[in-house]
């Protein structure tokens, strides 16, 4: 009896039921699509830098630090002091470090200040050297 009443109620409101169903389906499709994009973007970022366990930088967001230090995208944050860098490099658990100084530009190109360790240790993709 209950199902018969519910079915008749839905039958009388065909257009609103169809619009609600379409909106619900579209919402689920968008949600699943965004989650798929987010997962793929995170996996791509994780595969970009090989052999690196930690990126240390001045106080900023995790994503901002990754995007600017690796891809040179976004805005530069404050730099870590040289003394702080030396203290981190001297820790016994740290095998190697690469100092990066970012934020300057020359003729529209971003400048990266570093040392030779950048070319010795930096790996990208499937463990490829620069």
**Overall number of structural domains:** 2
Largest sheet: 2 strands, antiparallel
Low-confidence stretches: none
Distance between the first and last residues' Cα? 73 Å
Total DSSP E strands: 4
Radius of gyration, CA atoms, in whole angstroms: 26 Å
How would you sum up the global shape? elongated
Tally of individual helices? 5
- Which percent bin holds the helix content? 40-55%
What topology, given as strand order, has the largest sheet?
Answer: 1-2
Oligomer: single chain
- SSE order, one letter for each helix or strand: HHHHEEHEE
Overall residue-averaged pLDDT value: 84
Question: What class would the helix/strand composition place it in?
Answer: mainly alpha
Strand content bin = 5-15%
What does this structure look like?
- The structure is a single chain.
- Strands 1-2 form a two-stranded antiparallel sheet. The protein has a two-stranded antiparallel sheet with strand order 3-4.
- Helix content is 53%, strand content 6%.
- The chain has 2 domains: 1-48; 54-130, no CATH class.
- The longest helix is centred in the N-terminal third of the chain and has 35 residues, at 14-48.
- The protein has 130 residues and is mainly alpha-helical.
- It is built from 5 helices and 4 strands.
- The radius of gyration is 26 Å and the shape is elongated.
């Amino acid at each position: 009896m209950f199902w018969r009443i519910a079915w008749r109620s839905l039958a009388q409101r065909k257009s609103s039921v169809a619009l609600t169903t379409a909106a619900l389906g579209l919402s689920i499709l968008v949600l699943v699509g965004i989650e798929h994009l987010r997962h793929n973007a995170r996996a791509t970022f994780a595969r970009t830098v090989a052999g690196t366990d930690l990126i240390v930088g001045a106080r900023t967001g995790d994503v901002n630090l990754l995007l600017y230090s690796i891809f040179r995208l976004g805005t530069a944050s404050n730099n870590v002091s040289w003394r702080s860098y030396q203290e981190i490099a001297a820790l016994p658990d740290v095998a190697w470090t690469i100092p990066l100084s970012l934020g300057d530009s020359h003729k529209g190109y971003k400048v990266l200040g570093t040392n030779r360790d950048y070319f010795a240790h930096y790996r990208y993709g499937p463990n490829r050297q620069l």
